[in-house]
Amino acid sequence: ESDTASEISFQFNKHKKTPSIDSHSSDMASVSSVSGSVLSVYSGDFGSVDAQGTVEFALDYDEKNREFQVHVSQCKDLAVVDEKKGRSDPYVKTYLLPDKARMGKRKTSVKKRTVNPIYNEVLRYKIEKMVLLIQKLNLSVWHNDPLGRNSFLGEIEIDLASWDWSNRKLNWYPLKPRSLSAVNGVDHRGVMNLSIKYVPPGSLGKMFHALSPKNPPSGEVHIWVKDVKDLLQLRPSGVDSFVKCYVLPDTSKKSYQKTRVIKRDTNPLFNHTIVYDGFHTEDLKDACVELTVWDHEKLTNHFLGGIRLGLGTGLSYGISVDWMDSTQEEVAFWQEMMSAANEWIEGLLPLRSL
Questions:
Q1: pLDDT in tens, the chain (354 residues)
Q2: Is the pTM of this model over 0.70?
Q3: Phi/psi class of residue 17: alpha, beta or left (left: φ > 0; alpha: ψ in -120 to 50)?
Q4: What value, to the nearest 5°, has the Cα angle with vertex 175 and ends 134 and 145?
Q5: In this structure, which CATH number among 3.40.50.1820, 3.90.1150.10, 2.60.40.150, 1.20.58.480 belongs to the domain 190-351?
Q6: Are 47 and 154 within 8 A, CB to CB?
Q7: Going edge to edge, which strands form the sheet with 257-258?
Q8: For strand 269-279 and strand 6-9, is the pairing parallel, antiparallel, or unpaired?
């Protein structure tokens, strides 16, 4: 079913701007909210101190309550943030990676005016053991600033698949500087391989018009979703993924398309082509193709990542919209399509939080 082209007619009306911009905005809010509030592990870091010192903690899994427990005991010899006052106000924060949005963060209380804080607190995650074993624990120490200008003091990252779960004792670990993998790839959600093409009005149309003596009266945007690599693995068996597509600002059923579900594969091959007609060349600067990848489950689908192809101007038909937020890579991809009519433009774009 996914190997055949899907034909969708998409009619823009510049004079009406958007038929009901309020409903479009609320629709997008409901779609985007599934991803949760995703902030960088290092958000709010304004400090420039070097990581030093150690942290004492222990890990345990409570089989009865299906709960992962991080016993944070204490830290020693942390860096001094406010040198004039000779103080740091440290706390400890944890994430389960790679999908920090799903599991959320946990943090201890703040200990004031000390570089040797004692916590003796347990940070808890309700999670199945098999799911836990495909995660990494990121434990970091921070200086708390009343104005929110928190400073990073050091971290440690543990691969839970190789952790010795018989070791329940408190142990000391050296705090390390930010790892490049964490800074650059902590929100890595995979990469989509796709091609797009714009067929202007009056030029040779799609396959459905090949036998017709008339050329299509309006332009077409062709989207060929080939495959996705390195999706988040939410279960030990992999992930059951599919791709949704909208041409914004339209979030109606008329705009909506999706691929078939590829089961138990973090590198799914879709090979799915979608064709939207009703485009005029001037519409390309105001429209945005949104492609999102989802994990399919019976009760609810989980957002894995997405891309938005457009000019990223923040405006659509003169109206300010939050979804016109394409990255530099996405904008360049869209611009190349606009400047090369009737040609397939190939791209490899990273999925992101929307």
A1: 233 334 444 444 433 333 333 333 323 322 322 222 233 344 444 455 888 999 999 999 999 999 999 999 999 999 998 777 777 899 999 988 876 556 678 999 999 999 999 999 999 999 888 888 888 899 999 998 877 678 889 999 888 888 889 989 999 999 988 764 444 444 567 889 999 999 998 776 444 444 444 555 788 999 999 999 888 777 667 789 999 999 999 888 888 999 999 998 889 999 999 999 888 889 999 999 999 999 988 777 888 889 999 999 999 999 999 899 998 889 999 999 999 999 999 989 989 887
A2: no
A3: left
A4: 100
A5: 2.60.40.150
A6: no
A7: 257-258, 241-248, 288-295, 302-309
A8: parallel
Q: How far apart are CA 180 and CA 24, in angstroms?
A: 39
* Distance (Å) of CA 4 to CA 44, 148, 332: 47, 52, 28
Residue 279, classified by CB atoms within 10 Å of its CB into exposed (0-12), middle (13-18) or buried (19+), is buried
Cα 83 versus chain centre, distance: 37
Residue identified by tokens 């409570």 is 62
State the amino acid at position 144 in one-letter form. N
d(CA 180, CA 191): 19
CATH of 49-182, one of 3.40.630.30, 3.30.70.20, 2.60.40.10, 2.60.40.150: 2.60.40.150
Identical fold between 49-182 and 190-351: yes
Name the nearest CA neighbour of 53 among 155, 178, 175, 152.
175
